[in-house]
Backbone:
């Protein structure tokens, strides 16, 4: 079963305040994967991994703007690499050398 946390639960787990998590969402730094029918934020295990990245980068002394920039660049590079991989899958040099995903 997939585990999910509400904002208060995640705040307690991460040692943050609910206000901090809401602020991160407001500025587009860290957003929940979903919401309940009543609009409460719901976080998943992958969200927790992303929050850990944010907190680690902050621990290195980066500002929130710098953290956001690093995370956005990482997502951009991953997107580029995924597209390159798709291209290589479509046009391999030799059928016997196809990449496996």
Residues:
């Amino acid at each position: 079963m997939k585990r999910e946390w509400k904002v208060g639960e995640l705040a307690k787990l991460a040692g943050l305040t609910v206000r901090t998590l809401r602020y991160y969402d407001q500025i587009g730094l860290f957003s929940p994967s979903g919401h309940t029918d009543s609009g409460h934020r719901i976080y998943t295990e992958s969200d927790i991994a992303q929050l850990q990245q944010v907190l680690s980068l902050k621990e290195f002394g980066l500002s929130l703007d710098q953290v956001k920039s690093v995370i956005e660049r990482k997502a951009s590079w991953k997107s580029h690499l995924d597209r390159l991989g798709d291209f290589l899958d479509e046009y391999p040099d030799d059928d016997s050398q196809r990449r496996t995903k």
Q: What stands out?
A: Strands lie at 4-6, 34-35, 41-44. Residues 49 and 55 are 10 Å apart (CA to CA). The helical segments are 7-14, 18-26, 45-59, 64-90. The mean pLDDT is 86.
